Amino acid sequence: ITTNREYDAVHAEIEVHKSAIHSAEAGEKQASEEITRLTDLKKEVDEKLEKVKTENEPQIKDLKEKIASIDSRIAEVVEERNALAPRISKQTLGTYDFIRNKRKNKKALSFIDDKGTCSICFKVLEPQLINEVKKGDLLRQCGSCGSILLWQEEVPEPENPES
């Protein structure tokens, strides 16, 4: 260094580098504190997760067993349906499947209750239609909702989806 100008430039550069070092050290300290905080938070969350898993494990196991039993029941019903389907005319089965598939609740059959109403839409049916359904010779549908009407002395109770 031969001049004051060079001396001042070198000192300014040294100050800039010292400032950069202090900023980097402060950033490193802040990052280290953030890592420590996040590590502690992760430990807390992991403990809560394990606690929730432990608390819910019996319920999960019970629900999985229920799902398995429902799946086996569905398989039984499908097998039973497949066994009965060949005995039903294609037109009747097609009508049933069409009605069932266009409904959200998948119900295509409606029983006529003791008041002479459709159990799906609750429309009062004509006596002639009720007599034709009782006779059972032809497939009859509700004029209001399109359900296939069935006659049964005792109308079954609706299935409870919660049980």
Number of helices: 3
* Number of DSSP-assigned strands: 2
Task: Estimate the helix proportion, in percent.
Answer: 55-70%
Distance between the termini: 92 Å
Radius of gyration: 38 Å
Bin the strand percentage. Answer: under 5%
Average pLDDT: 89
State the strand order across the main sheet.
Answer: 1-2
Low-confidence parts, pLDDT < 50 over ≥5 residues?
A: none
Shape call: rod-shaped
Q: Outline the biggest β-sheet.
A: 2 strands, parallel
- Structural class by secondary-structure content: mainly alpha
Query: Would you list the SSEs in sequence order as H and E?
Result: HHEHE
Would you kindly provide a written description of the structure presented here, covering whatever features stand out?
The chain is mainly α. Helices cover 63% and strands 4% of the residues. The protein contains three helices and two strands, in the order ααβαβ. The protein has a two-stranded parallel sheet. Strand 1, helix 3 (127-135) and strand 2 (148-150) form a beta-alpha-beta unit. The relative contact order is 0.06. The mean pLDDT is 89.
Topology:
Elements: H1 4-84, H2 90-102, E1 109-111, H3 127-135, E2 148-150
Features:
about 160 residues, two-stranded parallel ribbon, about 65% helix, mainly alpha, 3 helices, rod-shaped
Task: Please outline what is shown here.
The protein has 163 residues and is mainly alpha-helical.
